[in-house]
Task: structure prediction
Amino acid sequence: MFLNSPTKSKSLSDAANYSLSKLAVTRLRRNRLAAASLCYFIIIIALCYIGPILYSLSPHAQVLALDTTLPFTRVNLVEVRYDEAKETPDEVTTFPDFLEVYAINGETDVAALAKEGALEINGVYFKQIERFHLLGTDSKGRDLLARILHGGRISLGVAFLATLTALVIGLSYGTVSGFLGGKVDTFMMRIVDILYALPFIIFVILLMVLFEGFEYKILLVFLAIGAIEWLTMARIVRGQVLHLKKQEFIIAAQATGASFFRIMTKHLAPNLIGPVIVYSTLLIPAVMLLEATLSFLGLGMQAHSASWGTLIHEGQETMHSSPWQLIAPSLFFSSTLFAMNILGDGLRDALDVKSAKD
Result:
């Protein structure tokens, strides 16, 4: 009676699952390079999603008079307001331009502005401010670090959403195809083959032409990438299901009359977690690279909502005169891709019981 107790059997199963999870975490921690990559990726996410909240400079604020500046530049600027109560200035200009355009009594006004930090001339309000640009500014006077942090939100956001879409569609599609088998499997895989044969770039161009002037272009990029990337996930899951459904525990579940949904959720899904997690960590950098390629070709994000790919595209246009505008976003982008690929390899070793070394 004790051996056949459902409570005892369930506790043993939970203990086994806990032990496997704990073993995988231990193996991942032993892989110092993979653990360091995970920490770095978490730091990048925190910088991109929390950094813009804490960083005082806006990625969209332009100071056309400032133009391009070197990294580690400290500049004196003047905010211009036609209504003192306004929270945002009507204009931000450099100090020399302020003297040339607005000052009436040069020496008197400069002295008053330097002493008080604020000045009013004929109903126009001026406030002296000081800014420090860690990575310099672009040709429109926008802070480069602020643009990189904001661009990281877009690149990572597209990657996460497209990966989630690939997981949901690919996992469901591949599981059904592999488990049912036969003609259903053949038909479903032929659909995947047809979609694979479609030229991706032409598909994106058609989307851009059909929705020209669409305000939320990020949704188009997400739609284009998400519509393609689930195909590989479906094939991977199908192959795993074809192998698993021949195992004794699946045959036993079918013999006891378990429903199709229960077999998929209770028996197949837990055994697919390993390959799915590994592929997801490798899919995120692949999607980021694809989005960056589209943005570099002018088919993705635009300047007002620049991703890392857009910033790299802008940087290569000025690489001879201001190479840091290309180097800075490229370092953020390439280091993130490198970290995710290393993390994917580490997770593959940690979750693969046969090949992992104790």
The chain has two domains: 31-54+142-351, 73-133. The longest strand covers residues 124-133.
